[in-house]
Structures are given as structure tokens and as C-alpha cells.
């Protein structure tokens, strides 16, 4: 078994549990921003590590990372501000 | 099937596309479409934040969390299966079967969640939030079912001794699709259940 | 096989002609693009038909005329699928039946636009009902289109030749198109919002995706005809 992959999975689970606990923060805006940030960080990890995009040609990698950045930023603008 | 080596692809300085390139046509197209879905939702939520907050509070966040963990773990097993194939390790097929079992678990949890919601009177047309909830999770569920079919096809590529026949591209491409299903759910979970 | 490939080329181009006629009929003539909102009151719908009678009637002719021209196009696709499947070709037959059912709705949509505009003295609600039927005929076939695309994708990806008859990316394209057309199936449930028949997700996304699919199919099929894919083993 690949230890790197298992470690990535542990990070993903930790981020999931963390985003589940933000409800206790009180301020909905900060909580919402944190949830989105964690969600898109997880998406980045899944793409780079599980989908193996970090070994892919740079164009494919950056198309994906660009999608993550644009979608994440647009959702943050629409939902939080 | 191209008869490429089962062993790790020799990586030129940069650039191994996982699976065949066509898979990425689908994945890219799907990502663009879901980005439009997410934006549509965010715009609608801005117009009635109070209604969305109230309706979201009715969802069972525990089940959403459980499903997220199921898909994340399932994704891990698929990634480990690919690594196992590269090492010529015979555990690849059981790992894929495990991933399918977890994916099936996702479908069962979703079915329980839908029936509980409908029993409570929270149905497709209850309010503007419920429309998004059922349509998005429904479209995602179609992806999960297609993904299970893809994984089943990948499992069928192994012989009785657990060795992969044919190219590794099937495992890479099928795996990439399954991770896409996982990735989309991560955002749906955050948008529909948490934010 | 020069003559044969000419027939294939003509059948493929019929699809382009059909698409052009359909678009001209719906958009500049009938002015139904984008569609009338489902939430529009019957009286306003009826007035729209009365005010644009000539445009809608001629648009209806073009829409109805485009429908049969899609069939040679579907036949050309089926010829490729049959070539891939070989002697026993259940998916090709499934494709043909679904296509026949799906594209007949285009003819019927043109017919209902015509009926709705035909007698301006019909009561408002009668005209509105005809109009509703026409729009449902355009959007609800998302379901046959979904099945059709999935079947096409599966056949193209099942091609084991070293040089596939149709390129493999086209197979993935078909699967993607199928999934994105799917939201059209629920238009009956909504009158406003993204899933209504004029909404972002039930109308605009499927319309754009369908246009992309249609054009790429034609390009890929002409390419396959050019390299004589049908006559090779």
C-alpha cells in the first residue's frame, strides 16, 4: 500500500471533520468561508494526488487548478459577500 | 486495448496523461457543467438566504458526512489499486471490489436519506432549495451509478489470478472518473449541507 | 466504394441542413429562442402568437421540414455504429429506434406551433395549451437523447480496432452530452428557475451542449468518410 496515498486520505478526512465543526464558530460568514476553503483544498488534493494530475502535462494540471481557483473564488464571492 | 506495459509509465520530464486522453474530454466537460450548476445555486441562494438557511437546516448533515467519508475512502482504495497494479501486486482487484462496495454504500445511504426526507414532506417541489437539493444530488447519483459500472468493467479486466490483462489505461481512466465523482460530491456536500 | 462514400457524405450533411432549418425556424422566424417563459399568463402567450402569426407559421414549416432530414443523418451514424458492432448489432438497432422516436417530436413541435398560430380567434387558453405542448416536445426528449448518446458512446468506445472507425474522444463526448441533457426530463415540475424549460440548466446548458455535439459529430463523421473508415477491416 502506498503510504503517501493513505496520508492524503487522512488529510482529506481531517479536513472533512474540521469543516463539519465550523458550525460552532458562531459567525456564519467566517464559517462559510472556511467551509468553502476546506472544500476546494480537498478538491485540489483529490485532483493532484488521486487523479495523478501532478504528473500530468502542465497544461492539463493548470486547466484543472485554474478551474478550482475560478470556481472557488466565484462561489466565495456569491455566497459570502 | 493498447498493449502498453503494465508497469509504471516511464515518465518523460513532464507529462503522463492518466488513462486515455478522451476520458479528460468527459471530465473537463463535466467540470465546466458542474461549475455552471454551482454558480446557479449560489445566485439563487443570494436571492433568498433566509429560506435557504431554514431548508438547509432540515437536511441530515450526519448522513451527508457519512457519504463523504464513504466516497473519500472508496477513492483511496481505487488509488491504491492503481498503485498495486503498477507494482504487479495481486491485491488490485480486491481493492477495486472494496471501492465498489463503499460506492454501493453511498447509494444505499442516499436512498435512505431521500425516503426519510420525502416521509417528512420535504419533496422536490417543497421550496427553491429542495429543487436544487434533489436535482443536484440526483444528477450526482447518476454519476455514482455510471462510476460503479466503470469500476465493474475495470474489475472484469483482471484474470482469475488477479493479474491485469491488457493496458493499465482502463484502470487509470476509470479511476480518474471515480475520483471525479468524489470531487463533485465534496463540493456538493459543502454547498448543500454546510455553508 | 466512391459512390457509397458520396451517399454517406450527403447523409451526414443532411444533418447540417436539418440543424440549420430547425434553428432558422425557431429563432428568427418563430422567435421562440429563447422559449417563452412557462410562467407567462395564457392571455400574453395568445397575444404573442397573434402578433407573430406569419413568422410562427413559416417557422413551423421549417421546423416540421427539418425533422425528416435528421433521419438520413441518423442513418449515417447508424452505418458507422453497425460497422463497429459487426453482424449482430443490437445497440445500433436500439440507436435507430430511439432516434426515430426522438426526432419525430421535432415534427410534432412544428405542428403544434402551427396549430397555435393558425386561428387567432381561438380562446387564449387553447392557444396557450398548444404552445405548452410545443415546448414540452422540444425539451422533454432529453430522455431519449440521453439514452441515444449513452448507446452511441458505448458503441464507439467498444471499438477494438487499432484504428477505430470513429475517434474515441467522440465516444466520451457522447457520454458527456448524454449526462448534460438529462436535466430536461424534469421540466414538467417547474415554471420558474433553472430547471424550468427556459432555465439555465434545463434549456441553455442542453441547447449549447447539443449544438456542440451536433457539430463535432458532423466533423468527426466527415473525417471518417474521408479516410474510408467504412471499407477498412
TrEMBL record, chain A:
InterPro entries: Cyt_c_oxidase_su4_prok
Localization, UniProt: Cell membrane
Membrane topology per record: Multi-pass membrane protein
GO cellular component, as recorded: plasma membrane
Source lineage: Bacteria, Pseudomonadati, Pseudomonadota, Alphaproteobacteria, Sphingomonadales
Protein known as: Cytochrome C oxidase subunit IV
Pfam families for this protein: COX4_pro
Keywords assigned by UniProt, alphabetized: Cell membrane, Membrane, Transmembrane, Transmembrane helix
Residue spans crossing the bilayer: 29-47, 59-80
Main location: membrane
TrEMBL record, chain B:
One function term, GO molecular function aspect: cytochrome-c oxidase activity
Record keywords, A-Z: Membrane, Transmembrane, Transmembrane helix
Domain of life: Bacteria
Pfam families for this protein: COX3 (PF00510)
The protein's name: Heme-copper oxidase subunit III family profile domain-containing protein
Subcellular location(s) per record: Cell membrane; Membrane
Organism: Sphingobium cupriresistens
Record-stated family: Belongs to the cytochrome c oxidase subunit 3 family.
Membrane disposition: Multi-pass membrane protein
Main subcellular location of this protein, as a coarse class: membrane
Residue intervals passing through the bilayer: 21-44, 64-83, 95-111, 131-155, 176-194
Automatic annotation (TrEMBL), chain C:
Keywords, alphabetical: Membrane, Transmembrane, Transmembrane helix
Spans traversing the lipid bilayer: 56-81, 93-113, 133-157, 169-190, 202-225
Protein name: DUF4386 domain-containing protein
Amino acid at each position: 500500500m502506498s503510504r503517501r496515498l493513505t496520508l492524503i486520505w487522512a488529510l482529506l478526512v481531517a479536513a472533512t471533520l474540521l469543516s463539519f465543526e465550523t458550525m460552532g464558530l458562531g459567525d456564519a460568514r467566517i464559517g462559510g468561508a472556511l467551509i468553502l476553503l476546506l472544500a476546494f483544498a480537498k478538491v485540489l488534493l483529490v485532483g493532484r494526488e488521486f487523479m495523478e494530475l501532478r504528473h500530468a502535462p502542465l497544461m492539463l494540471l493548470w486547466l484543472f487548478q485554474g478551474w478550482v481557483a475560478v470556481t472557488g473564488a466565484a462561489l466565495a464571492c456569491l455566497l459570502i459577500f | 486495448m493498447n498493449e502498453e506495459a503494465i508497469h509504471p509509465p516511464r515518465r518523460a520530464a513532464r507529462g503522463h496523461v492518466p488513462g486515455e486522453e478522451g476520458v479528460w474530454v468527459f471530465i473537463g466537460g463535466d467540470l465546466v457543467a458542474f461549475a455552471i450548476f454551482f454558480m446557479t445555486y449560489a445566485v439563487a441562494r443570494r436571492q433568498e438566504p433566509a429560506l435557504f438557511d431554514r431548508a438547509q437546516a432540515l437536511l441530515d448533515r450526519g448522513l451527508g458526512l457519512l457519504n463523504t467519508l464513504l466516497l473519500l475512502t472508496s477513492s483511496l482504495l481505487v488509488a491504491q489499486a492503481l498503485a498495486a497494479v503498477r507494482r504487479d501486486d495481486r491485491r488490485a482487484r480486491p481493492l477495486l471490489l472494496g471501492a465498489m462496495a463503499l460506492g454501493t454504500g453511498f447509494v444505499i445511504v442516499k436512498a435512505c436519506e431521500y425516503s426519510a426526507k420525502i416521509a417528512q414532506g420535504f419533496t422536490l417541489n417543497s421550496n427553491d432549495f429542495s429543487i436544487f437539493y434533489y436535482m443536484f444530488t440526483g444528477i450526482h447519483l447518476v454519476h455514482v451509478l455510471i462510476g460503479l459500472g466503470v469500476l465493474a468493467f475495470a474489475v472484469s479486466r483482471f484474470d482469475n489470478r488477479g493479474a491485469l490483462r491488457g493496458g493499465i489505461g482502463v484502470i487509470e481512466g476509470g479511476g480518474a472518473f471515480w475520483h471525479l465523482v468524489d470531487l463533485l460530491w465534496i463540493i456538493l456536500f459543502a454547498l448543500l449541507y454546510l455553508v | 466504394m466512391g459512390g457509397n462514400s458520396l451517399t454517406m457524405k450527403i447523409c451526414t450533411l443532411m444533418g447540417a441542413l436539418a440543424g440549420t432549418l430547425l434553428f432558422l425556424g425557431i429563432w428568427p422566424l418563430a422567435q421562440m429562442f429563447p422559449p417563452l417563459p412557462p410562467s407567462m399568463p395564457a392571455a400574453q402567450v395568445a397575444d404573442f402568437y397573434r402578433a407573430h402569426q406569419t413568422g410562427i407559421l413559416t417557422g413551423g414549416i421549417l421546423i416540421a421540414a427539418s425533422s425528416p432530414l435528421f433521419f438520413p443523418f441518423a442513418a449515417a451514424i447508424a452505418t458507422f455504429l453497425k460497422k463497429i458492432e459487426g453482424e449482430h448489432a443490437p445497440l445500433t438497432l436500439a440507436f435507430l429506434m430511439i432516434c426515430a422516436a426522438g426526432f419525430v417530436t421535432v415534427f410534432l413541435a412544428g405542428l403544434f406551433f402551427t396549430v397555435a398560430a393558425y386561428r387567432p380567434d381561438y380562446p387564449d387558453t387553447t392557444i396557450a395549451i398548444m404552445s405548452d405542448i410545443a415546448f414540452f416536445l422540444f425539451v422533454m426528449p432529453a430522455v431519449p437523447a440521453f439514452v441515444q448518446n449513452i448507446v452511441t458512446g458505448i458503441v464507439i468506445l467498444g471499438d477494438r480496432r487499432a484504428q477505430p472507425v470513429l475517434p474515441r474522444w467522440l465516444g466520451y463526448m457522447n457520454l458527456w452530452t448524454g449526462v448534460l441533457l438529462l436535466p430536461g426530463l424534469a421540466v414538467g415540475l417547474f415554471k420558474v428557475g433553472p430547471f424550468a424549460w427556459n432555465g439555465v440548466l434545463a434549456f441553455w446548458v442542453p441547447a449549447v451542449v447539443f449544438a456542440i455535439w451536433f457539430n463535432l459529430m458532423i466533423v468527426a463523421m466527415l473525417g471518417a468518410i474521408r479516410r474510408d473508415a467504412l471499407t477498412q477491416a
